[in-house]
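A student in our group prepared the protein record below, which I am reviewing. This is what I was given:
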Amino acid sequence: MRSLALKLTLAFLFVSVIGVALTAIVVRQQTQREFDQFVLDRYQLDLLDDLSQYFQQAGNWESINAIVIPNPYRRGGRGPGPGAFPAPVTLVDAQGIVVYSGLHHKTGVPLSEDELANSVPVEVEGEPVGAVLFSEFFSQNYPPPESPESRFLDSLNQAVIFGALGAIGVALLIGFLLARTISRPVREVTAATQIVAGGDLGYQVPVRTKDELGDLAEAFNLMSTDLAEANELRRQMTADIAHDLRTPLSVILGYTEALTSGKLQATPETFNIMYNKAQHLQHLIDDLRTLALADAGELSLTRRPVEPALLLEHAALDHMVQAQDREVTIRVEADEDLPSIEVDPERMAQVLGNLVSNALRYTPQGGEVLLSAERGQGSIILKVQDSGPGIDPEELPHIFDRFYRSDKSRQQSGESGLGLAIARSIVEAHGGNITAKSVQDNGAVFIISFPET
């Protein structure tokens, strides 16, 4: 039995049968009990009234044995007659002597006070003239067959049975519909999983409900979308890596072939070009290795307390010559009394170096690159801000993606496209966070925050 719908249907059916059966049994027993109690109470009132009238007319109990006291479950009418039979009651006079017995007592024998403890008095004009002892009718086989009471209970039992069968049928139908409603999204997600496994990444399933099954469908759709995006990113990254490797390798191979064939004379300028291309390849390989270590959680960090201002000053000094060549000013600002942060100085120098290099690349002559440090809410914040053209809002969410390139003002000509991705990996490995903000034509700012220890 592999069908989820069948399992759920049988589960609903089993629960409904158990529930309806228990309800029917309780209702039947309770109805029987209440009906018997109603008949007994009504019978007691009528019997006491009849006995009171009899004594009031006769003045004594001498002829009481000549009549038949009716049974509460008799088949005939009130009083003696065809189909009537003695009732299980005992009648005593005012002195406690038995004058009529339908139980185990003997006529003419007085009863003790203990035996009369549960008796009900018979009164005439407020004066007790006798008492009646009633037996437990529930312990006897009442009502007798073919009596009106028996027919009433039989009809009631039939109604309960038919109602229970109807309830089971309705429960079975509702259970079947609910089972299909629950199993349908599961079947759709299962089929979609097989489609995605077959290579159709990005396949979406309809979200039909807002409950847990709807959450499951939404989670699957998100996973499928992420898989499609990751696959597209992988393809793009592979193409970018091939392109970045092919360009310098083509140059190196071209020069070596020309030198080998004698078409080109060996000069310092030729070897310098080949050396620069080899350095570019080495830089790309180092970047890829850094990202691979970060992805595997194996990026080694040698942490020690470092003053934030000192990190910024070293980054500014490292790029001072480059800034002067581009006629750009580098300035460092830091709040006083900033606590030290636990970081790897060499890794953070790599992060700040990437950010400052980008800032210098896009800052026009006469512009400024500002490196600042300040205290935030429970964090230390480092900023690298330029006065360049800024970042297009459509590009801003993607600038930390690997090999991301733009054809606009932030195009990374001659770069691997991994600098910001490496910066984010290193910062996150330190437990920090890096974001970027930009105002078009008013520069960009990269914000690094570390939790304050």
